[in-house]
Amino acid sequence: MKIGIDIDGVLTNIEQWQLDYGSKFYYENYGLGIKNYKGYETNEIFDVDIKLDDEFWNKYFRDYSINVEARKFANEVIDKLKEDGHEIYIITARGSFLSHSADVMTIEENRNIVLNWLKINQIHYDNIIFSPEDKLEICKQNNIDLMIEDKPKNINTISNEIPVICYHANYNEQCNGKNIYRCYSWYDIYRKIKEIQKH
Fold first, then answer.
1. Which residues of the chain fall short of a pLDDT of 50?
2. Does the reported pTM lie above 0.90?
């Protein structure tokens, strides 16, 4: 199978990172706290406008991109998937004009940081696609058989066409239905892919 894998929220725990760094930033600078722990974007979590949100990301985006930890066993499981004969496609909105980095770094620098991060974390892949947000189109163009994703909008649209492994987060708990398989860890993902293959 060709397996598509998102970065933020799938290879990283961006949910916890946003809660940790966001609450530090908004408390220290504005005395604000978490308003909606189920928010997908930081402006939803802290109930702030985009201008304030940009201030947060301008401060932390580079640090996040370079230093965020990869999820436990992500590289191990991806290596197993490759050994099993699957092709791995990293499909990310990072390194596109849509990401938080627009004011922080060039698209080229952003992409280089992503490539370096994957290398440092020993995440091996066959292809990487830096895509704007219509991931369903990307999946179709590249004949992706299964996508591992965390963003609600992407989970809902992609699952209309192919199976999606939903990496569990508070912000995507409403996503369920045909073709959506909720997972809680990378070994859980591995087991589910084996099950999906059987069927």
1. none
2. yes
